Amino acid sequence: MNDRKIKVVHILEGFLGGTCTYICNVLPHLAKKGFDVTLIVSLNRCCPDAQTRISELQLSGVHVHVIPMSREISLFRDIRSFVIILWLLSRNKFDIIHTHCSKAGALGRVAGFLAGKKVRLHTPHCFAFMRCNSRSKKLLYLVLEKALGKITTRLLTVSRAEATAAIRHGIVPSNRCITVRNGLSIGQSYPNTTISEEELATKTSLELDRNAQVISTACRLVEYKGVFRFLRAASLCHARNAVFLIAGDGELRASAESFIRENRLNNKVRLLGHISNTERIYAVSDIVALCSDAEAQPYSLLEAMRAKCPIVATSVIGNEELISNDQTGLLVMPSPANIAGAIDGLLASRAKRNEYAENAYAYFCKHHTLEKQISELTEVYRTLIKD
What's the predicted TM-score (pTM) here? Predict the structure, then answer.
């Protein structure tokens, strides 16, 4: 093992959202650290710039295999995907299999077990049973996670809350659960004081008034992200010149457009679609909001903390671990009225906004740098290979 690189394969269905950010941040750094890194991924669900991101991964030294995989349960399609994954795992001498999210987590771990791979890691990025509304589906997903937990060498969570949930629900015991929190490069922070020429240019490009008070959210337009909770909060917000921006796309786009028209919010809410560079949105944001039902450890909040944006977030698993109420932001119960009230109150106090932003930035720099994440992840990999 000492005379060759450790071979790690990551398996993912759905190259979009936070998992895409994770893969694009982490894998190139693993390659730089001397690991032989492979990605098996489906692009059936992907962000608009997926091909560019795949090319960047390949240029960084990551081997990429694009295969068909679907999010929905389909016997024929799932068997086809499973056979391809099993073939790839069997013909390559991978030392570590690291799967992500539900579908790839199921197919990849079973294939890894049958291929005789010793180290099988899984990162849920928010368990499916925690974010779906159907009781029957919750039970099904939990039963499947418990079964898969038996063939999982380590559950590698991105937050303590996710680890606690896994242990409490009997998915894996505590000695097989490790937390390596998400991280981002430090990058540039934007103190929200006077508007710069760059910020003014961004406001102009978005057709925003110079004096507009901007509340933004960055998320996929799917049910558990609380898109309509954000839209209803926008309709209830009383602050003058408040404009609500939604950066993201997804299956609820058409429904969100209808809601905006029916509630006459055209002048107050903008659907921006997919934004590859959210930093420019955060640069003009007076407040960043996240209205989801559940999270693992959302990159949107980490990006807002890095950009020194005041945050209003729903008091749910995942958000609660990042935001300390009235210190690094505001946590509110997940209702439009509570969210709107928090936004109105925070827009009325620049001092509070600056206090939260500075505290959040300090917390981010201490706990959530990409360097810290990579250091902890590589230590986990090397330790498991030695065992």
Answer: 0.93
